Amino acid sequence: MTAFKPILTRHLGQPGSSTIDYYLLNEGYRGARKAVLEMDGAGVIDLVKASGLQGRGGAGFPTGVKWGFIPKDTRKPVYLINNADESEPGTFKDRLLINHNPHQMIEGMIIASKAIGCHLAFIYIRGEFVKETRLLEAAIEECRSNNILGKGIFGSDFDLDIIVHRGAGAYICGEETGLIESLEGKRGWPRIKPPFPAIEGYLSSPTVVNNVETLANLPHILVHGAKWFHSIGANPESPGPKLYCISGRVKKPGVYEAPMGTHLDDLIENYARGVIDDRLIKAVIPGGSSAPLLTAEEIVGLPMDFPSVKAAGSMLGSAGIIVLDETVDMVQACYNLARFYAHESCGQCTPCREGTTWLTKILERFTAGRGRMEDIDLILDVADNIGGLIDFSKGSFGKTICPFGEAVAWPVRAFVEKFRHEFEAYIATEAVA
Ligand SMILES: Cc1cc2nc3c(=O)[nH]c(=O)nc-3n(C[C@H](O)[C@H](O)[C@H](O)COP(=O)(O)O)c2cc1C
Ligand code: SF4
Q1: For 105-133, how does the pLDDT look when each residue is reduced to its tens digit (9 = 90+)?
Q2: Pocket test for ligand 2, best of 191, 397, 404 (most atoms within 8 A of CB)
């Protein structure tokens, strides 16, 4: 455990931390003022590129690079969408940031808007987050009354307003193009890419979609500089502070802020206080339910940053760490996962729509004691037909419109490959009805 002073969550639990008065008293909006009053958009993009900030929504794409894809000469309006859908199972960090410090994220939105030339931004928030929606609406009103949003913000000639839009609670509306469709009032069906949102996004205009945590980092980069940010964490390729959500069979589940690259076993043992009843770890899902699980041996000394987790055969994703202890039934866990994905598939692509249902049915057969030996390879076959074979060096084969296909295929494959003996034991021990 390192001596690290929280950055993103430093105001957590302080009375009044969600109000503008509190935020302004604690150096709030300094970064946004700097971006709006002292810098041009290109300067902000260069600064964020130099910081090395990678998107915290799952893919870890470099934020400044993504902003740089917005065409410079466009005559269309440019939009920013803050992805507050927080739909990945095992992930609950964005909600915390909104609850305790909505202004930090709004400040990030002002900085991002300045960078890309956006004058109307959206927060797409998960429908169930009713309290957070009200908090955000109140915070935006506070900004409007303080000339921090609206016409000529901070006395400049830069206009910006923010609209909060509640989703209806579909996992797929966290995927950026499904989200855009939903924001346009349509069914949340992901779009074929290209064109990418930076070229044709909301209302066919250039659009950037960024995650809540990504945006919350920006005020700090503007105030303390790219070098400061770049120096946080063990791996300069993947720097910054990181919010890790730890759940499952641990004594103290919760959100923990630590430097990027903190070791996975350190996070479980020292932050989340270890496994309930001091049981042994069987496996860990490191980055939300879409990330292939790692065995107890594979997590030892594993730095939790984007490149290191990828090299270990999984992904940092949303940093939703789910701990499975020695008592967890891996067949049941896999069935649970498959059911979730079958329920949440938007149904556009045949491999995903049919494949997730087939996986669920096969696994249901196992849990009902009617599994067959050939079903084990059948699971792998169906998974491969949804989302391609796992080859992180080559990427996926992309059989579906959006990465949801891989998000189910990869973890299911990992369950079967790493715990095949449990699937076999299920067949051997469960009586055939
Ligand atoms: C099925 C699926 C669900 C997703 N859910 C979320 C989500 O809830 N929140 C989020 O920020 N990104 C989510 N993403 C990733 C977004 O598509 C997008 O990459 C992200 O919002 C970009 O923000 P960033 O560049 O700041 O990481 C999801 C992706 C997929 C494929
Ligand atoms: S992969 Fe699944 S969720 Fe994604 S577009 Fe196709 S059917 Fe919909």
Answers
A1: 999 999 999 999 999 999 999 999 999 99
A2: 404
